[in-house]
Design brief:
Largest sheet: 5 strands, mixed
Distance between the termini: 41 Å
Number of helices: 10
Structural class: alpha+beta
Radius of gyration: 21 Å
Order of helices and strands: EHEHEEEEHHEEHEHHHEHH
Number of strands: 10
Number of domains: 1
């Protein structure tokens, strides 16, 4: 087995997850990022830092039927199916956070406790164009005060229609043309940095579940003590049966 390594944009991987071309494997630890973790991640994208590595498994057709996948990832729900091509073996925090940024609040099946705390408390991740800093802001206060802030979803989705409406609303709220132009420039910069953000993908293709398990344990190095057992359940690997030697 020889894994394939290639680079692609963060947006490409996110698009593949959003379209269910890549499905998260049901073996990863629950989402664990706090607001400060998300802010650091967003700032790293804004600064153009590399986004690290992600591991995917593209199994043989005969090995797909028994694979267990997550029913949802962040605000995105997946329809049950055994026809998925590629399985995401790590990166749960990064991509769950990006999905929350992209899709926002919707009909979530079963958010984790940390997701409720980070994403479902009435705040939203926003960029202050004057300081170029990210923070979570109370949306009731933002709407009341008409602060000059841009939601992270706007640069993740490159939503220019929203920005035109935003510019009109900021002008009506009394913000100067210079400040509005600063906001538009900050959004364009953030959108460009997201489009250009790169990550390394390690693809394990056409190998048996046991080979994929070995790659997962040695490349991803999960911290959970039962990681091997979780992979066995995910990939429907039958436990080895210890044979009892015949009596003398």
């Amino acid at each position: 087995m020889k894994p394939k390594f290639f680079t692609c944009s963060l947006k490409e991987v996110l698009d593949d997850i959003s379209s269910a071309e890549v499905i998260p494997a049901d073996l990863q630890e629950p989402y664990s990022w706090s607001k400060s973790d998300v802010i650091s991640f967003a700032e790293n994208i804004f600064k153009g830092y590399p986004m690290g590595n992600v591991v995917v498994w593209h199994p043989k057709d005969e090995d797909k039927s028994g694979v267990c996948v997550l029913p949802s990832m962040g605000p995105l729900n997946f329809l049950p199916s055994s026809g998925h091509n590629t399985y995401l073996l790590d990166g749960i925090n990064r991509f769950t956070s990006l999905l929350w940024m992209r899709h926002g609040l919707c009909d979530v099946w079963a958010p984790s406790e940390m997701e409720k705390e980070t994403w479902l408390d009435g705040t939203e991740l926003m960029l202050d164009p004057k300081t170029e800093q990210f923070a979570f802001y109370d949306m009731v206060e933002v709407r009341k005060s008409k602060k000059l802030l841009i939601p992270a979803s706007v640069f993740i989705n490159d939503d220019m229609a929203y920005m035109r409406e935003w510019a009109n609303n900021m002008e009506a709220a009394g913000h100067s043309r210079a400040d509005i132009d600063l906001g538009i420039a900050a959004q364009e910069k953030a959108a460009n940095m997201f489009r250009e953000s790169r990550m390394t993908v390690t693809e394990v293709r056409g190998v048996s579940p046991l080979e994929a398990k070995d790659a997962y344990l040695n490349i991803c190095r999960p911290k959970s003590e039962d990681a091997a057992a979780k992979f066995d359940v995910f990939a429907s690997i039958e436990p080895e049966v210890e044979l009892t030697p015949p009596a003398p």
